[in-house]
Amino acid sequence: MSPLFGGSRSILDRTTEFFTQEGWRFEPIEGKPIIRMGFKGDNGSWMCFAQAKEDSHQLLFYSIMESNVAEKKRHEIAEFITRANYGLQIGNFEMDFSDGEIRYKTSIDVEGGELTLKMIRTMVYVNILMMDRYLPGIMSVLHAGTSPAAAIEQVEK
Prior knowledge:
Blueprint: H1 11-22, E1 27-28, E2 34-40, E3 45-53, E4 58-64, H2 74-85, E5 92-95, E6 102-109, H3 117-143, H4 148-156
Antiparallel strand pairs: 1-2, 2-3, 3-4, 4-6, 5-6
C-alpha cells in the first residue's frame, strides 16, 4: 500500500473510489493494477484504462481508439497527432508504429503529495474530452483523404 493516503490508500484504491463516485462502470484487470471501462463521447466510443504505478507514485489514464491505423496511413496520422500535440497543455496523443494503435494519455506523479479526487477528475475528463474533440479529425484523415493540416484546422477552429 502507498503511504500517500494516511498509510492505507493506494493509488488504485483512490482511482477506484473516483470512478465509483462518478458512476462509471468499470472492471479490474485481474492480477494487474489496472481498471478498464468503455466510454462513448459525442464523436465515437473507445476503451479507457487507468493504470496505477504504486512504486513510482504515478497514475496513468488512456483513451484507446477501437481500431488500429492501417500501415499505409500511419505517417499521415503521425503528422496529425504531432500537429494535435503541439500546444496541448495536459496529455498527449501517441501512436504505436508497429500496430497502429492510437491513444490519448494523461498522467500524474504524486510522489511526496496526496492524490485527490479532483486531480483524478481533471486528468480523466481532460483525456476523454481531447479524444472526443480530435477523433473526427483522425477519422477524416483515415477515411476521407483529408490532409493532416486541414483536419487539424477543422478540429481546432
